[in-house]
Amino acid sequence: MKLFFHIGIGKTGTTTIQHQLLTYEADLARRSILVPRSGRSEHGDHHRLATYQLPEMSEALQGLYRKLIAELDGSDCETAIFSSEQFCFLRKPYVHKLRELLSHHEIKVVFYIRNQFDLIESTYLEMLKWPRDFGGFKGSITDLIRKGHAAFSFQDRLNPWEEAFGKGSIIVRVYDSPAVKKDITRDLFSVIGASDLDVVAGARKNESLIPEFHGLIELMDETGIEADTRRKLIAELVSLSSKFRPIAQETLLDASLRGEVLAAYLEANQRFAAKYLSQSDQATFIEAFLSRAEQG
Q1: At 149, is the secondary structure helix, strand, or coil?
Q2: From residue 175, how far is each of 70, 118, 293 by CA, in Å?
Q3: I want to staple 86 with a disulfide (CB 3.0 to 4.6 A). Which of 50, 74, 126, 267 is the partner?
Q4: What's the rounded Cα separation, in Å, for the pair 36 and 190?
Q5: Is residue 227 in some structural domain?
Q6: What is the Cα–Cα distance from 202 to 207, expressed in whole angstroms?
């Protein structure tokens, strides 16, 4: 069986994809594409198969993978699709054990990339949704840029997968492409062999906050607001963000921070693009990166 692992990166429509995999599960099955239930949550993600906090796969997780293998062996489908943005943070021993367990199957790895300016800002705003006393990020966006370099280095994210399965198994898609960003689900479905499926683009899931609300959230946290009240207010701000996104103009990255991001990723992005992307996709990705670097 051909197994597609959609591994992220986060903040490229991953939650929307996972929701749509559930929505179209039966339609995909009719096209001989399985969305495995082993390790899958009620939200459609396969995070349980991607416990990135562990340096290697535990015995309990190996048991879950064996359950998955039994599900694959019992299916008449020719293809399966897994989705978790946590897959791209798995370490080398974990991915090599995954290869060993799934050695009788053909593996394809689908990875969406996004210019790091938008990716870092969107990731930081996502972290702000969570109370700092309950696992939320405790630093500033400057801290995220300076301490989280590897998290946004696309080659670093892919290295364990390429070492395990080879460069030929890697499929890189550019989220910055207007067509991809407009309908990320349709793009993934075309990759896995379901391009004929008439996908209805629903509301995007896990909407990001707009930067304009950043200061309000900081002020809210300084007051020591109760967690439940905070959660409700964040939900309201996310709803308002969806409405005001078309006219939002603020950015959390000033000229100095944009300079740091540009210096940190430009050469690496150029090498990465030349390695994995077609010439047209290279142009789309690098142009998006450089254009965002110049924006105030």
Answers
A1: helix
A2: 34, 11, 17
A3: 50
A4: 19
A5: no
A6: 13
Q: Is residue 67 part of a domain?
A: yes
Nearest to residue 15, comparing CAs of 230, 191, 136, 188?
A: 188
Q: How many domains does the chain divide into? A: 1
Please name the residue that has the structure tokens 């105030």.
296
Count how many Cα atoms sit within 13 Å of the Cα of residue 184 in the half-sphere of its side chain. Answer: 29
pLDDT digits (tens, 9 = 90+) for 145-187: 999 999 999 999 999 999 999 999 999 999 999 999 889 999 9
Residue 58 sits in a domain of what CATH number?
3.40.50.300
In this structure, is residue 228 part of a structural domain?
no
* pLDDT attached to residue 223: 87
Tokens 């239930």, residue? 37
The residue segments making up the domain with residue 168 are 2-206+252-294
Backbone dihedral region for residue 67 (phi beyond 0: left; psi -120 to 50: alpha; all else: beta): alpha
User: What are φ and ψ of residue 41, in 5° steps?
Assistant: -90, 175
Q: Please say if the pLDDT value at position 12 is more than 90.
A: yes
Q: What is the number of other CB atoms lying within 10 angstroms of the CB of residue 63? A: 10
Over the stretch 116-125, which tens digit does the pLDDT of each residue have? 999 999 999 9
